[in-house]
Amino acid sequence: MRSPETYFKIRKLKNSLFHLVVLISAICVMAPLFIVVAFLLQKGASGFNLDFFTNIPKPVGEIGGGMKHAIIGTMIMVSLASLIAIPIGLLGGIFLSEFGKGKIATLLRFATDLLTGVPSIVIGIFGYLLVVIPFKSFSALAGALSLSLIILPIVIRSTEEILKLIPNHYREAGLALGLPRWKMILFIIVKGHLSQLFTGIILAISRAAGETAPLLFTAFGSLYLSYNVKAPMASLPVQIYNYAISPYKDWQSQAWTGAFVLITLVLGLNLFARTVFGIKKLRRK
Amino acid sequence: MNQDIILDVKDLNAWFGNFHAVKSISKSYKKNTINAIIGPSGCGKSTYLRCLNRIHEEVPGAKVSGEAIIDGQNIFDPKADPVEVRRKIGMVFQKPNPFPAMSIYENVVIGLKLQGIKKKSFLLEQAENCLRKAALWDEVKDKLNKDGMSLSGGQQQRLCIARTLAVNPPVVLMDEPTSALDPIASAKIEDLMSELKKEYTVIVVTHNMQQAARISDYTSFFVLGELIEHNLSSEIFTRPKMKQTEDYITGRFG
Ligand SMILES: Nc1ncnc2c1ncn2[C@@H]1O[C@H](COP(=O)(O)OP(=O)(O)O)[C@@H](O)[C@H]1O
Ligand SMILES: [Mg+2]
């Protein structure tokens, strides 16, 4: 017979062991992020200066130049993609949460999940087939369309999830005021939770901002500053990719800086979404 | 028909799927009265109330039969528009629920605004008017632009009452409006209800017998979806006719 103390000690040991395992897995999850950021900081910080943001690439062989064209290109394409995907995504999410019972809803939910799982390179092919081939040219528009397919399912699902968390008595209270259902949904349920909905939207946008594959054979990339959505356009991820695989030291170092800028942008958007809007969300409760 | 009757309920039944929750209730409500509904929990008081402004049918699988006549029209008529019904028969819920991300002022006028009324002076006037009726004006008149959620529970419930009154429904349903509140906040709401009956007809569910006795003109006693007894409150709480009613109000059952 073992004494109660022994049992207690064994239990304590098991408990500490479990804590240790959990701690190690947590570190395994966080470590890559820190390593990447630290690495990019070390490699990319040296090229991080005003020139990088105000210049476009110099001809091959000349040292210097920057990624202004790619930063602007990313902004243009991500904005266009958002313009397409956010309204549709919000409406789709509202539909799923507020009316989502029939066959159409089940189908939409299924399609959304599938779309989330489609590899982004395949989404690029979609843009290629749908826009590039018919118009016989790589274009920012094709890139934006592909990015919108990255954003769309995330916005639909996050919208649905957020709206579903809202207790029904708010909906009933809206109806009880003699409001038609659509007004109740738009002006009480949706309008009352805009900050939470924005969180989902910004996370989706930040995801799209960092995508390379959907742009490779849609927007293609460019070495010039362009505002023409019917022409090829540079983007940060593609520019980084092209520079990183180039044989030139200067371009490689700019690729590091570009990667640093990109991750700052994406992490920044994420933090912004989670803190600014997240805090409001907590206060509400 | 009696001119004093504002709402006439005839043979009202309600179901959740196959579960018969409200059984053949008939009762007419006189204008400018407070009508209490009491009964053990789960006996269908909320369900009955929710039938009367057609919120019951929002629950999947829920059904209603029977009639409830207001202004000569049966609210359950297939041609009756639930939106119109709810403008005549408003509802205050058990849990105070000001709309999120709306100021106190916006909460009160939202019903009017979404009905398309834009005139600011009218909305302001109506907001003050309803907040006064809800006995909240003095407490919030200096902070109408503060978030409705920033108020205390009792104030939030009075805000919800003001919000309901703003669309001016002649009949106001209240489902245990004070059960989530402390005694002082409850007392304030009881006081304002007695004021409300000058302009409105109130049907209020309460689990608090003293409250029913204090504020209501008539009381209905429900058990298991059936209306067991209804009478003047002064009668029911002093000389109940049914044994079950007596047992319930004296606390022997419930
Ligand atoms: N959404 C629902 N689905 C199925 N049954 C319900 C639902 N809501 C209430 N009920 C049932 O209907 C009966 C009456 O409920 P309710 O009207 O809420 O009672 P009360 O308000 O008198 O406490 C109860 O037996 C309850 O379990
Ligand atoms: Mg109830």
Describe this structure in words.
The complex is a heterodimer of chains A (285) and B (254). By secondary structure, chain A is an all-alpha fold. Chain A has a domain of 171 residues: MetI-like (MetI-like fold), CATH 1.10.3720.10. Helix content of chain A is 76%, strand content 0%. Chain A is flat, with a radius of gyration of 24 Å. The model of chain A has no long low-confidence stretch (mean pLDDT 92). With 254 residues, chain B is α/β, with parallel strands linked by helices. Chain B is 35% helix and 26% strand. Chain B has ten helices and ten strands. In chain B, strands 6-7-8-3-9-10 form a six-stranded mixed β-sheet, sandwiched between helices. A four-stranded antiparallel β-sheet of chain B has the order 2-1-4-5, with helices on one face. In chain B, helix 4 crosses helix 6. The termini of chain B are far apart. The model of chain B has no long low-confidence stretch (mean pLDDT 95). Classes of the chains: A mainly alpha (285), B alpha/beta (254). At the A-B interface, helix 7 and helix 8 of A face helix 2, helix 3 and helix 6 of B. The complex binds adenosine-5'-diphosphate (ADP) and magnesium ion (MG). Adenosine-5'-diphosphate binds next to strand 2 and helix 1 of chain B.
- The first-level CATH class name of the domain at 65-235 in chain A: Mainly Alpha
Label the overall shape of chain A.
Answer: flat
CATH topology of the domain at 65-235 in chain A: MetI-like fold
What is Rg of chain A? 24 Å
Radius of gyration of chain B: 18 Å
